[in-house]
Amino acid sequence: MRRMSLALGGVLATVAALTIGTTAQAQETGTVYVVHGIPNTPVDVYVDGQRALDDFAPGTSQGPLQLPAGGHQVALFAADAPDGSGSPVLSANADLPAGANVTLVAHLSESGQPAITPFVNDVSSVPAGQARLVVRHTAAAPAVDVLAAGSPVISGLTNPNEKALEVPAGTVPASVAAAGTTQPVIGPTNLDLQEGTATFVHAIGSLQDSTLGVVAITVSDLHSAPSGVPSGAPSGAPYEPGLPGWLLLSSAAGVLLLGLSVRRWVHAGR
Amino acid sequence: MGARRALNRRRAGGAGLVVGLLLVIVPVGLWLTGTGPPAGTTAGGPPASAPALVAGAGTAAAGAVAAASEPGGPAAPLRIRLPGLGVDAAVVPVGVDPSGEMTVPEEVASVGWYRFGPAPGAAAGSSVLAGHVDDRVQGPGAFYRLVELQAGQPVLVTLADGTELTFRVRTVERIGKPELPVQAIFDRAGAPRLTLITCGGEFDRAAGSFRDNIVVRADPA
Question: Cis before residue A64, ω within 30 degrees of 0?
Fold first, then answer.
């Protein structure tokens, strides 16, 4: 279910969805993001025969769009094409389940052929203090490793697949290298992974053409509450009002020494 | 010979007297002025728990940077004052410990602000400040008498940019830890409010923790 048969993102939907979304019919729609990962090819996106996105630029994303659940036909035409007729650059039929959250990625296959791949977005809540990082390999390149601060955190990721991590929130210097190597082909770049968010990073472009890049989409408000507040005694035992033991002990030693000294003093004086 | 020996003995006796006096006066003085010995120098607490808590404090320090760079929202809180209880304590940003609970500063005299949630003064949600109630080694904490707060009493919070915010206590509750309503306490939406938390109720010696939390809700004045 990670890869659905195909979902669709687009056009007329934007308007229609806004209306539907506000009439408490959320279960009758799905959420769609679109990513354009084919270099040098601006496109117009048509959904069910209507133009949804005009001049959708490579290396960018659009969304979230609320679309009616059900089957949709999505087609990408060269951006200068006069209308949605003729033969598209790419087309696909997508079934969008009610309540689903998907990203449609127009990208190059490992061998460099244009393709549309749908991914299901994991937008479930993230543990307190954590952030989710999802890396998707949608570039014309062989298997890669993802490195965080120079160490591999994802190994052997291939086109068109994804891997997810949950990491402590913070800024992570990340890079992508050919599998088994550490020389970056993308990055290093600082990823700001805020607490309670999911960041979907798409590697796009072509290694051979030196057009590799990334498109990132962040979904917020996925935070969870901490499980409790351990505000008791940090040493494991509570405060005991009155004279603390260490003080009593030290004072007792002082009194003893005082007594002995006075006795010696008096004796020596004789 | 006898005279010299007597003199030496007098000197030794005098030194003992001074040391003895110091041993009595200094600790009593320290106790009266409320300054305990540095944490960890006595046999009071189980040392095993110290490293983890120190690590937590480190996380909190790192968080200060993130909190300060948060765009748009209010500045991070620096101090909290509870005039009704004579409390004036430092506030430090904290996050989550490895067990998924809110980190509470190891130093019981200071209070932690849950930096992933709203800051005091944010437009919406519950801003959470928590402090240890007390400790055998360190003595009473900043929130030692939190349970004594009364509805209507002021809570003053100073932010890093110098802004001073005033809240009024609305409710003071003692809640068993298993029933702590964490969803509501750490809610990032809804009416803007301040939530103060410490521990209370019976101390469970086997578990090494209190059974309850004291939860104070305060609303913007």
Answer: yes
CATH number of B49-220: 2.40.260.10
- A39 falls in which pLDDT band (50, 70, 90)? very high
Look up residue B102 and give its DSSP letter: B
d(CA A194, CA A222): 10
Residue A258 domain flag = no
pLDDT tens for B21-34 read 666 666 555 554 44
One domain for residues A95 and A111? yes
Higher pLDDT, B174 or A237: B174
The one-character DSSP state at A143 is -
Of the candidates B111, B99, B206, B145, the one whose C-alpha atom is nearest the C-alpha of residue A239 is B145
* Final residue in a domain of this structure, among A66, A96, A121: A121
Copy the structure tokens of residue B186: 């750490």
Q: Does B99 touch chain A (CB under 8 A)?
A: yes
* pLDDT at residue A269, as a whole number: 59
Contact A82, A57 (CB under 8 A): no
Residues from chain A contacting residue B209 (CB–CB below 8 Å):
230, 232-233
pLDDT of B41 over the 80 cut: no
H or E element in which residue A55 lies: strand A50-56
pTM to 2 decimal places: 0.74
Say yes or no: A129 and A106 in one domain. Answer: no
Contact residues on chain A for B49, CB-CB shorter than 8 A: 234-236
Do A13 and A81 share a domain, yes or no? Answer: yes
* pLDDT over 70 at A7, yes or no: no
Does the CA dihedral A262-A264-A261-A257 come out positive or negative?
A: negative
